[in-house]
UniProtKB/TrEMBL annotation:
<feature type="active site">
    <location>
        <position position="152"/>
    </location>
</feature>
<dbReference type="Pfam" id="PF14543">
    <property type="entry name" value="TAXi_N"/>
</dbReference>
<protein>
    <recommendedName>
        <fullName>Peptidase A1 domain-containing protein</fullName>
    </recommendedName>
</protein>
<dbReference type="Pfam" id="PF14541">
    <property type="entry name" value="TAXi_C"/>
</dbReference>
<dbReference type="InterPro" id="IPR032799">
    <property type="entry name" value="TAXi_C"/>
</dbReference>
<keyword id="KW-0064">Aspartyl protease</keyword>
<feature type="active site">
    <location>
        <position position="345"/>
    </location>
</feature>
<feature type="domain" description="Peptidase A1">
    <location>
        <begin position="134"/>
        <end position="460"/>
    </location>
</feature>
<dbReference type="GO" id="GO:0006508">
    <property type="term" value="P:proteolysis"/>
</dbReference>
<dbReference type="InterPro" id="IPR033873">
    <property type="entry name" value="CND41-like"/>
</dbReference>
<dbReference type="InterPro" id="IPR033121">
    <property type="entry name" value="PEPTIDASE_A1"/>
</dbReference>
<keyword id="KW-1015">Disulfide bond</keyword>
<keyword id="KW-0732">Signal</keyword>
<comment type="similarity">
    <text>Belongs to the peptidase A1 family.</text>
</comment>
<dbReference type="InterPro" id="IPR001461">
    <property type="entry name" value="Aspartic_peptidase_A1"/>
</dbReference>
<feature type="signal peptide">
    <location>
        <begin position="1"/>
        <end position="25"/>
    </location>
</feature>
<dbReference type="GO" id="GO:0004190">
    <property type="term" value="F:aspartic-type endopeptidase activity"/>
</dbReference>
C-alpha cells in the first residue's frame, strides 16, 4: 500500500513539474519574449536600385526625410557609391571617435563656437569630420535655397558654405548659398551680446569651428530664415555662413546642429518645439527615415531615460547599467561605465564599449553563434562570420539597460555590420580612454526622442515602419 502511495506521489510531482514547465513556456511565447531574431541572410543586403520610403514618418508639418548619404535615396549619391566603401566609412568613423576624444579632453566653449587663428587653419587641410552618414534637406533664405546638411547631435551651430568663398570652399553637390540673394539674411554685429568670439570683420561677428578631427569652418555669424517644410518656417535663426571651409564633407553643404548648446536648432526653436526632437534612422541605405521637431507623432510606447551631464554637459549622456545577449545578462556592473560615462551620438557608426565590457559581449555572442562559420576580421571588427550558402540565420538579440529602468532592445539590423555575405561582423568595438558611444548602427529603426527641456531621452521599437 505504501509503495503504491509513494508511486502516486511521484506521478503527481511529475505532472505538476511538467505543467509548470509547459505554462512557463507558453507564457514566454505568448508574451513575445523571444531572445533571438531569425531572418533571411538576404535581408542584410537589400536591393540598391530602389528607394523604399518610410511607412511611419509622422504626418506632421515639422517632419523631414532622413537618408543615408551614400544610399539609393540620396541625391548626393555618385556612381562610385553604387557599392559602399566600407573601409572608408570605418576609417572616417574612427576619425569621428578621435574627434569626440579630443572634444572631451579640452575645455571647449559650451556653445560649440570658438575662435581659430589663420595659422591653425593652414595646418588642417584635407582632414575629415567623420562618418557623416545621414542627411536632411532644408531651405535657407528668402527665396529658400534647398541644401543637404549632415544632421548631427554632436554639433550645435548649424552652418553652410557661403559665397563668396574668400578663403576656400570644398566641393558640394548643390550650388553654394549666396547670402546677397536672400532678403532675410542679416549679419550679427560685433556689438551684439551674442557675439562672444571677440573676432570681427567690418563690424560683423566672425565665428570659427575647429573640429576635433581638424576639419573646420569659418565665416560670419548670421541670422536667416530656415524652412523645414513648406508650412513650417523658422525666422531669425542664428547660423554660420562659412566662407572659409576645409575638410571632406562628402558633397554636403554643411551641418544641421542638434546638440545641447544654445545655438543648436532645437534650442533656438524652443518656443515652437519645446526643445524636443525625434528621429528614426533607416534600416539600410535603400530606405528612408525621418527627423521630427516637436512632440507631435511621438509613439506612446516610448520609454525614457534621464540625460546625464557626464561625461560632458554638451553631449547627450546616458547611463548604461547592463547589457544582455540573448537570454544571458553580461557579467558587468554599472561601475564598468562609471569612469568615462556613455553618450548617444548620431554621427558615430559603430558602438564603442570599454574593452572589458566588449570582450564579455563578444564572448557570449560567439557562444550563441557557434553553429556558424567564423571568418577573418576587418578594420575595427574582430568577430565576423561567413554566411555563404546560408539562407536563414538566427542571431541573439542584444539589449541595453539604461538608467530609470528603460531597456532598449536593438533592432535586427542593429547588431551586425554586413560587409559581404562572406564577411558579416558584430557591429561593436572595444575602446578605452573615451566614453562608451551608442552609435548609429545600433540606433537603426528605433524611434529616439530627445526631450531636452525635460532632461530625458526616449526609445521605442519600429520607429520607421
Amino acid at each position: 500500500m505504501s509503495v503504491m502511495k509513494n508511486f502516486l506521489n511521484v506521478i503527481l510531482i511529475l505532472c505538476v513539474c511538467l505543467n509548470w514547465r509547459f505554462t512557463e513556456g507558453a507564457e514566454k511565447k505568448e508574451s513575445g519574449k523571444a531572445d533571438s531574431y531569425t531572418f533571411q541572410v538576404s535581408f542584410l543586403f537589400p536591393s540598391s536600385s530602389t528607394c523604399v520610403l518610410s511607412s511611419k514618418a509622422p504626418n506632421t508639418k515639422s517632419s523631414i526625410r532622413v537618408v543615408h548619404m551614400h544610399g539609393t535615396c540620396s541625391h548626393l549619391r555618385s556612381n562610385k557609391d553604387a557599392s559602399l566603401d566600407h573601409d572608408e566609412i570605418l576609417r572616417c568613423d574612427q576619425a569621428r571617435v578621435e574627434s569626440i576624444r579630443s572634444k572631451l579632453s579640452k575645455k571647449n566653449n559650451a556653445d560649440g563656437i570658438s575662435m581659430i587663428k589663420s595659422t591653425e587653419l593652414q595646418a588642417t587641410i584635407g582632414k575629415t569630420l567623420g562618418s557623416a552618414n545621414y542627411i536632411v534637406t532644408v531651405g535657407i533664405g528668402t527665396p529658400k535655397h534647398d541644401l543637404s546638411l549632415v544632421f548631427d547631435t554632436g554639433s550645435d551651430l548649424t552652418w553652410t558654405q557661403c559665397q563668396p568663398c574668400l578663403g576656400s570652399c570644398y566641393s558640394q553637390k548643390e550650388p553654394i548659398f549666396n547670402p546677397s540673394s536672400s532678403s532675410s539674411y542679416h549679419n550679427v554685429s560685433c556689438s551684439s551680446p551674442i557675439c562672444k568670439t571677440g573676432a570681427c570683420s567690418a563690424s560683423n561677428c566672425v565665428y570659427g569651428i575647429l573640429y576635433g578631427d581638424n576639419s573646420f569652418t569659418r565665416g560670419f555669424l548670421s541670422k536667416e530664415k530656415i524652412t523645414l517644410t513648406n508650412s513650417d518656417v523658422l525666422d531669425d535663426v542664428y547660423f554660420g555662413c562659412g566662407e572659409y571651409n576645409k575638410g571632406l564633407f562628402f558633397r554636403t553643404a554643411g551641418i544641421l546642429g542638434l546638440g545641447r548648446g544654445k545655438f543648436s536648432l532645437p534650442s533656438q526653436a524652443t518656443t515652437t518645439y519645446n526643445n524636443i526632437f525625434s528621429y528614426c534612422l533607416p534600416s539600410s541605405p535603400s530606405n528612408t527615415g525621418h527627423l521630427t521637431f516637436g512632440s507631435a507623432g511621438i509613439s506612446n510606447s516610448v520609454k525614457f531615460t534621464p540625460i546625464s551631464s557626464f561625461p560632458s554637459p554638451s553631449s547627450y549622456g546616458i547611463n548604461i547599467v547592463g547589457i544582455s545577449v540573448g537570454d544571458k545578462e553580461l557579467e558587468i556592473t554599472p561601475a564598468s561605465f562609471s569612469t568615462k560615462g556613455a553618450i548617444i551620438d548620431s554621427g558615430t557608426v559603430i558602438t564603442r564599449l570599454p574593452t572589458k565590457v566588449y570582450a564579455e559581449l563578444r564572448r557570449v555572442f560567439k557562444e550563441k553563434m557557434s553553429s556558424y562559420k567564423a571568418t577573418s576580421g576587418r578594420s575595427i571588427f574582430d568577430t565576423c562570420y561567413d554566411f555563404t550558402g546560408v539562407d536563414t540565420m538566427t542571431i541573439p538579440k542584444i539589449a541595453f539597460s539604461l538608467g530609470g529602468g528603460t531597456v532598449v532592445e536593438l533592432g535586427r539590423m542593429g547588431i551586425l555590420y554586413p560587409l559581404t555575405q562572406s564577411q558579416v561582423c558584430l557591429a561593436f568595438a572595444g575602446e578605452d580612454d573615451l566614453p562608451a558611444i551608442f552609435g548609429n548602427v545600433q540606433q537603426k529603426t528605433l524611434e529616439i526622442v530627445y526631450d531636452v527641456a525635460g532632461g530625458r531621452i526616449g526609445f521605442a521599437s519600429n520607429g520607421c515602419s
